[in-house]
UniProtKB/TrEMBL annotation, chain A:
GO terms for molecular function: sodium:proton antiporter activity. Keywords: Membrane, Transmembrane, Transmembrane helix. The lineage of its organism: Bacteria, Pseudomonadati, Pseudomonadota, Alphaproteobacteria, Sphingomonadales. It comes from Sphingobium jiangsuense. InterPro entries: PhaG_MnhG_YufB. The chain crosses the membrane at residues 12-36, 48-68, 74-95. Residues 104-126 are annotated as: Disordered. It holds the Pfam family PhaG_MnhG_YufB. It comes from the Bacteria. This is Multicomponent K+:H+ antiporter subunit G.
From TrEMBL, chain B:
This is Multicomponent K+:H+ antiporter subunit E. It is found in: Cell membrane. The lineage of its organism: Bacteria, Pseudomonadati, Pseudomonadota, Alphaproteobacteria, Sphingomonadales. Pfam families: MNHE. PANTHER family: NA(+)/H(+) ANTIPORTER SUBUNIT E1, NA(+)_H(+) ANTIPORTER SUBUNIT E1.
Amino acid sequence: MMQAPDLPLWAALITALLLLTGSLLTLTGALGLLRLRSFYQRVHAPTLGATLGAGCILIASMLCFSVLETRAVLHEVLIALFLTVTTPVTLMLLARAALYRDRVEGNPETPPDTGQERPANPAEKA
Amino acid sequence: MTRWLAFPLLTLCLLAMWLLLVQSVAPGSILMGVLVALVATRLFTVLRPEPVKYRLTGAVVRLAGIVLYDIIRSNIAVARIILTGRTDRGMSGFIRIPIDMRSRHGLALLAVIITATPGTLWVQFDSARGSLLIHVLDLVDEEQWIALIKNRYEKLLMEIFP
């Protein structure tokens, strides 16, 4: 079992800095969910945690364990990859559902359908 | 035999993923990884996927750099908007962007880029008209956003997916 004090000072400092930056960004994203007004604005907020927030935390993890185990620990790259590939799908589904609902309700701020678009058809989403 | 190596890039990526997951480059792991990657690629061809036309040029590296830079920049921009409380309704809105790219894979990648960048969200793509609807959190200058997506991303993506 490895102990955290084994970490040299420079690595500990960089790891702590990256962890703090990442968690502050994620917290800001969560705060955005509370502060932003409309649904479409709020959808933007959690991307902070899914992109740079997660990125900072993953780099911190790679650095910390690479130094502790004195070998390259890189499998966090896969977490970043799968996050990047999957989050947009969820966000797009949410946005499309909201848009569909707003169009059915006839909300004034909703952009009009251009005619050929069929919002109910998921195959349409390229 | 060609059916086992129909997607060489996919096979390579699967092998890389396997080696990262088992965290070793011992001959045994590589052998197992090659086996898994080959079988997975072979199973993938059963789905009859549309063949991907791509060119691995310097554009890939340039695009990756640009996207990374933009993600960092827009993270800071969106965090500032949330923290300073500039959250008026009128500031954000939808814009329509004319898109010339027709490659499905290029469009999919553009969707990931736009959505992964905080502050912009891919909402709907009209494939018949080539018109893309996105939502922008900090919509000050509409023309500037259209130019950004067309010049920064679409041009490079069309180079990669001709």
